[in-house]
Every structure is written in C-alpha cells, then in structure tokens.
Amino acid sequence: MTGTDNREGARPARRSAASEGACRGLGSRTAKQGASMLGAEAVVASLEAEGVTTVFGYPGGQAIKLYDALYGSKQITHVLARHEQGAVHMADGYARATGRPGVVMVTSGPGATNTVTGIATAYMDSVPLVVITGQVGRGVIGTDSFQESDIVGITMPVVKHSYLLQSIDELTRTIREAFHIAVTGRPGPVLIDIPSDVAGEEMVFEYPDDVSLPSYKPTYRGNAKQIRTACRLLEEAEQPLLYVGGGVVSSGATEELTALMDAMQVPAVVTLMGKGGVPASHPLNLGPVGMHGAKYSNMAMTEADLIIAAGARFSDRVTGRVSEFAPNAKIVHIDIDPAEIGKIRDADVPIVGDLKGVLAGMLECLAKAGAAPRDDQWVADIAAWRERYPFYHPNMAVNEEEDEIVPELVIAELGRQLDPDASIVTTEVGQHQMWAHQFLHRERPRTFLSSGGLGTMGFGFPAAIGAAVARPDATVVCIAGDGSFQMNSQEMATAAINGVPVKVMILDNRCLGMVHQWQKLFYGRRYSQTLLAPVPDFVKLAEAYGWEGERVEAPGEVAGAIARMLAAPGPYLLDVAISPEQNVYPMVAPGAALDNVMGAIDVAVGAVRTDVPAAPGSPRARMTGAPSGAASPCAKIDAQFGGRWEIDPEDTGARLGQDGSTVDVRPEDWKTLFRAGDEGKEDRR
C-alpha cells in the first residue's frame, strides 16, 4: 500500500525506505493482540499487523500449518505461483513497484532451495523481501530428514539477515525485526525459517511495535563536514557529473536530485538500476552509461573533474577497466551502505547516509553559500557530443530492410504508445534488456524493473506479474527474449488464473542473444550452445494458457500489434521476430577502458566509428592472427545503423557532404556545435 493510511490513529506512511522501520499496518493495535492461537496463526496475524495484503508462494508438507492459517485471513490475498523461484520474483516485482517489502511463503527442502536465485536477485539489487520457509521439526533438524535443507546456511551470503526459529516465544519479535531490517538502511531480503512443530504450538499473540537491535543502527544523516566539503568541490568543479544509481529510487530522492542538477547545471548519467530516478525528459539526463551506455555518457564520465556517485556502487559494467576509469575526477561517494564506499574506487569525500537527506543537505549548503554554476562550457561540450554520437540515427528507419524488424525501433514504438504516468516496464536479461535501457524513456521511479546485479534470466516475467498485482491501475509490460522467457514461462498460468492482465513482448531471435553477440565479436563466431531451435510456437503456447497472442515478422506490422497488445483486457503475448545478427551497440568490450567504445554512431563522418577488436590491424586481430585484409566481424550491422565502417578498407562509398551520401546531416550542422580546436582545454582541467 502507498500513500497515507487514513485509519484512526494510524501513522502516516513513510516517504521512502529510509524510515525508522515502524509497522506499516496496525502493529500492536490489531484486534488479535492478546488472543491465544497456534504459532502458524500468529505468523499470519503478524503479517496482518505489518499491513501485508499480498503473499506470493507455494505450499508443501512443512508449510501446511502456515497455509492452513492463511486460509482464514480476510486481509491477505495469496498468489499461487507455479514455481517457488517465480514466487520470489513476483514478490520482488511487487516490492520494486511499491517500495514495500514483498512477502513469500514456501515449504522446506526443494521448496526453500528453489527460492535461492530469487533471493540473490533481490539482494544484489537492494530489494526488501521477507521470505518465510517451512522447516522440519526441531527434533530432526540436522538428521537429513525428508525434505530438510539448511536454507539458513545456503542463503547466508545473499540475505541481509536470516532466522531459524527455536522457540515460539521468538516468533512475533522475529517477524517484527525481519520487516524492520528489510526496509531500513540498504533494503534487502530477510529469511525466516519456521520449524513445523513451532508452527503447531499454542501461544498468546503479542505483536511489538518497537525493535531493539543494538548492533544494527543504519546511518541516515550524512556528516555535515563531509557535505560541506562535497559542496565546495562542486562549486570549484568545471566539469562535474552526477553518477546516479538505484539508491535514488529506494531513497525516493528524485526531487532532490533534479533540484541539484538544475541549481548547479550538473549533468547526470544513469545506471540500469537508477533508470526512472531522473526523468528521461530532463535536459541534463545523459541516460545510460557503461558497457552499453551512450558514447557521450562514457565520454562525460571520462572527462569529468568531479563525479558525485549518488546511490551507485561502481559496478564493473559501468566502470570498464577500473585503472583507467575517470582519471581526472575527484570522487564524492554517497551511499547508505558504508561497505560500498571505497570498495572499488577510493572516494575523496565519502558520505554515509540516506541519499534523500544528504542531497537535501547539499542543496541547503549551496543555497546558503549563494553557489552558482561555474560556467556553461561543460554542458555545451556534452550537448555537442550528444549530437555527434547519438543512440538513434534516423537512417535506422530509412535503411530498415523490408523483411527485417529493427529491435531498437520496436522498443521506441512501445515507448511512444505507453502512458509514462500509468505504465510499468519490466525486462528479462540480455540484448532486449539493453535495448530497453537505451530506447525506452521512463519519467518516474519504480516504473522500470530489471535485474541489474545478478542479471537473472527468468526475472522479468514473474516480476511483471508482481508489479501488476501491486499496481492494478498501471499497464505492465515485460520485454523479454525468447531464451529468458522460457526460464519461467510456466507463470503464464499464474497470470491467467488470477486475472492479471500482464503483457509480454518477446524480441525473438531464436538465440541467446547477448552470449551469441559475444561469441560473434570475441570468439570467432563459434556459436557454442547459443542457437535455439524454433520451438515453442509462442502463439500456441499463449493459447494453451488462455492468453491472447500473435506473431509479427514484418516492420509494418509492429505498431498495430503493439496497439492491440496494450488494448487487450487480459494477458497478451506479442512474439516479434528479429534477426539473430542484430547486436547491441554502442559497446565497451569486456576489460576495456570506458572510453574505448565500439559501434558508436558518428554523424560527423556518416558512419559507425569504432575500433572493432577483430578489425584489420587492431590488437585483437594481431592477437588472433587474423589476416590483414580480414573484414570486421561487425560489418553486417552497416544497414542496422545506416552508415559505413570508417575502418573498412573496401568502403569507398560517399561520405558525409559528398554526392551520393545517404546521410541527411551536413557537416555544417555539427561543426558549429564544437569549439574551434581544443584550445584552452588543458587550462580548464
């Protein structure tokens, strides 16, 4: 639930996960306080006291008492998944869409172990979950009893905290602590393992409002001296940059972040997890950065003299080769988790605290000092880079082959038809995920849900179901690949039976696209186990589950098909056929420096400007012994981008401004965007 709880005496809902962890529901004021009941009934009463309205799960022998108690709840709706992993991803999607903890209930043994991937996914992306697992009776724990597994031990590295209940007296306090830990500080999953004999004991229900955890005291208020130091560096910087991660979403700091961008004219690059935390329409939002980020975003990161990392953790997918990352920049690192600061890149100014509060402190400090942007040259430079190295080139549409659908244009068309204020997009993992990050604009936080840290195939579809359950007012679309979708396609039954009108758009290239792309570029086209047979027929699969479905194979069919999908009252599957030869560009090769971008469009030469690793004369070509005249393995994406390869010795076609050029942009259209030469550049650093 979101917004303000209007029930008499209820606390106002917190604005962000950086709260004190108070009960989100009635807490001790529940009518069940003081009543006698079984432990299993107390579990359900505790969830109700926390304000839980939805539980995702799958029953089993050691959870049967918990499910029997759940049967009588008038507050909680249970969503029966078809696999425990799917249940956790649904709860994850629910949590990401709302900021409230997702709740999962499963049985012991294989039921519990099936949750591990989902728990790890949530842990890597800082998503609050409470996972309740049934366990064998206390007397047989450790004896390899039927369907026994040490789920506490198994999940220890991927949970924020875990409990194995040893006494009925611990039950309500443990559940209260679990919810407190899940949503406070850096959010994350908490696991509670409940032996079946504890669930069957009698107790008097007493739910605590307060939590006493002396060893767990997250720091919310940033150090005032460090905030002042960060502000001074920002005032002095000539080329400052905000590096925005998922912390802006979990902290609810969009307003403060955009205010800082406006006040000091600081551009921002945004990670996959931070997408939506800065409105895509904001003129200073440079969008994706890193391995598949824009060339201009990566250039900004490389050329910046000050980087303010706002709730970001310097992932290798962002930094590229760390030794060459942002060589000219001082680093201000703001994070609520002290373990992240200095873990990968040393911070000149470390600030531990809630991002929302720290940014508010910076704004206040800058206002008191009368701070203003130092000059506008940095913003002008970046604007010029954005014009010269765009993600999208108009000739992508012009050169679209009649019988081949361009995936970037499919994503863009979906974005045009979606209402940004009433839609949520989830993704599976792979090429389609990166195309969505690049070409799908999001204006609000919690409207783009994707597995970032773990990169979990099979996440997006069940997460879309969870998001749709949480936000029935929103149109929820999962962008999937044919490989990822089959990881958890059984959850089509969950959507159909529960009347969840989720939409799935598959970019279907009949291969494991991202690994296939790496094999093409870096492994000599040795496609080991990445080519998928043309099964199943996804439209027939949709029909089997009671969904509507259709397949499109021609560019002219795409817009109408998307419109039909979005207009459908129930679940809908759209299978979009694309070529396995399509690649995600730009790209920074694994282990390369962030500014070594391949496949970037350069309108200045009317081509894709790149140093393809296997191009003639390149280090990769010398290393692999490729003949000097060998063609680039990427040459076939020429039509994809509407340009020619600058490095292709056989390319003698017309260049920009020459007769016969197919490129619309004239030299004078871009040259005026740049200063004459680089005079004074060294002085400005």
TrEMBL record:
Thiamine pyrophosphate enzyme TPP-binding domain location: 429-576
Catalytic reactions on record: 2 pyruvate + H(+) = (2S)-2-acetolactate + CO2
SUPFAM superfamilies to which the protein is assigned, alphabetical: DHS-like NAD/FAD-binding domain, Thiamin diphosphate-binding fold (THDP-binding)
EC number of this enzyme: 2.2.1.6
Gene3D superfamilies: 3.40.50.970, TPP-binding domain (3.40.50.1220)
Cofactor(s) the protein requires to work: Mg(2+); thiamine diphosphate
Residue span(s) of domain Thiamine pyrophosphate enzyme central: 227-360
Domain of life: Bacteria
Biased segments, Basic and acidic residues type: 1-11, 665-685
Metabolic or biological pathway: Amino-acid biosynthesis; L-valine biosynthesis; L-valine from pyruvate: step 1/4; Amino-acid biosynthesis; L-isoleucine biosynthesis; L-isoleucine from 2-oxobutanoate: step 1/4
BP-aspect Gene Ontology terms: isoleucine biosynthetic process; L-valine biosynthetic process
Region Disordered, residue ranges: 1-25, 645-685
The keyword Transmembrane helix appears for this protein: no
Comment on bound cofactor: Binds 1 Mg(2+) ion per subunit. Binds 1 thiamine pyrophosphate per subunit.
Residues covered by the Thiamine pyrophosphate enzyme N-terminal TPP-binding domain: 38-152
GO cellular component: acetolactate synthase complex
InterPro entries registered for this protein in UniProt: Acetolactate_synth_lsu (IPR012846), AHAS_TPP (IPR039368), DHS-like_NAD/FAD-binding_dom (IPR029035), THDP-binding (IPR029061), Thiamin_PyroP_enz_cen_dom (IPR012000), Thiamin_PyroP_enz_TPP-bd_dom (IPR012001), TPP-bd_CS (IPR000399), TPP_enz (IPR045229)
Gene Ontology MF, one: magnesium ion binding
Alphabetical UniProt keywords: Amino-acid biosynthesis, Branched-chain amino acid biosynthesis, FAD, Flavoprotein, Magnesium, Metal-binding, Thiamine pyrophosphate, Transferase
Similarity section: Belongs to the TPP enzyme family.
Record PANTHER family: ACETOLACTATE SYNTHASE CATALYTIC SUBUNIT, MITOCHONDRIAL (PTHR18968:SF13), THIAMINE PYROPHOSPHATE ENZYMES (PTHR18968)
Name assigned to this protein: Acetolactate synthase
Source species: Adlercreutzia mucosicola
Lineage, top ranks: Bacteria, Bacillati, Actinomycetota, Coriobacteriia, Eggerthellales
Gene giving rise to this polypeptide: ilvB
